[in-house]
UniProtKB/TrEMBL annotation:
Its cofactor is FAD. PROSITE patterns: ETF_ALPHA (PS00696). Belongs to the ETF alpha-subunit/FixB family. Gene3D superfamilies: HUPs, TPP-binding domain. This is Electron transfer flavoprotein alpha subunit apoprotein. The keyword Flavoprotein applies.
Length: 328
């Protein structure tokens, strides 16, 4: 049975995040011939209409209000709720990002709908939607079937491949004016100060080079950054490195940090505490570099290198440079 699916597009600094395109792919799979609608908030929402169209959106609803240029819970809650009431979808997808994790449960609770969070796969089986999500810090997976009513789902980045861009597609565009209850807009964003380094978004990076206490200092992250730059990836860290003030907590990966699923995860000087493994153990390929051959990180690694990261990482960087030069 075909379904109408709504995707809340996640836009940062005027650019569409990859998880929004992945959500459109999941929406197309679930719609089964029904309409796929994307909602975009903010005064510059028109800038991403074409990209949404090319990746599966049949219709794009624009809420061109400057109150939505920066995320605030109150404004997004009111706007998202009104968009849902206008579109009347059967399924609503958001990314499992800071925005999706905050606004989806709030709106779902207000509308009396179900919510499945942190999904790594979505499929249709015998006319019902089946969501797959990790439990017990990624040690097991559970499938949840949904049969009737409206359901929200947040999708973990880097798990559902985005559709190939089809430049022949053109979505219907609609501008929707939403009404805000001003007395409920309790937060105003005056300025945004970014403490994390610029570059590839950690939660969506295909390659992550991560450091632990073994990097020994803030300067110890420099060779990791060089390797990440060569591979077009991002730098992450364990909580131990963050607690030691080697880097900012914005880079923390683990149970109390970001959960990532890159194609390649290179763990440098990380022992492999269970809290850290919860944030990266579902990476497609894991390479561990550690002087201790008994380090727990090797238990989840596909490839292990026993050695000093300050010797191994520069060697890897040089070898990758050679390979990339030869491939051009």
């Amino acid at each position: 049975m075909s379904k109408n699916v709504l995707v809340l597009a996640d836009v940062r600094d005027g650019e569409l995040r990859n998880v929004s395109l992945e959500s459109l792919a999941a929406a197309t799979r679930v719609a089964d011939g029904g309409a796929v609608t994307a909602a975009v908030f903010g005064s510059k929402a028109k800038d991403v209409v074409e990209e949404l169209s090319h990746h599966g959106a049949d219709k794009v609803v624009l809420v061109l209000d400057e109150k939505l240029d920066q995320y605030t819970t109150d404004a997004y809650f009111q706007a998202f709720k009104q968009v849902i009431e206008h579109v009347e979808p059967d399924v609503i997808f958001t990314g499992h990002t800071a925005i999706g994790r905050d606004v989806s449960p709030r709106v779902a609770a207000r509308l009396g709908c179900g919510l499945v969070s942190d999904c790594t796969d979505v499929e249709v089986d015998d006319s019902q939607i089946v969501f797959t999500r990790p439990i017990y810090a990624g040690k097991a997976f559970v499938k949840k079937a949904f049969r009737e009513g409206t359901v929200f789902a947040t999708l973990r980045p880097n798990n559902i491949p985005a559709l190939e861009a089809d430049t022949s597609r053109s979505a219907v565009v609609e501008e929707l004016e939403v009404q805000f209850a001003e007395d409920l807009l309790r937060t105003v964003v005056k300025d945004v100060v970014r403490k994390a380094s610029e570059g590839v978004d950690l939660s969506e990076a295909r390659v992550i080079v991560s450091g632990g206490r073994g990097v020994k200092s803030a300067d110890g992250f420099k060779p990791l950054q060089e390797l990440a730059d060569v591979l077009g990836g991002a730098v992450g860290a364990s909580r131990g490195a963050c607690d030691a003030e080697y880097c900012d907590y914005a880079l923390q990966i683990g149970q109390t940090g970001k959960v990532v699923t890159p194609d390649l995860y290179i763990a440098c000087g990380i022992s492999g505490a269970i809290q850290h493994l919860a944030g990266m153990s579902n990476s497609k390929v894991i390479v561990a570099i550690n002087k201790d051959p008994e380090a727990n990180i090797f238990s989840v690694a596909d490839y292990g290198i026993v050695g000093d990261l300050f010797e191994v990482v520069p060697m890897l960087t040089e070898e990758f440079k050679k390979v990339l030069v030869e491939s051009k």
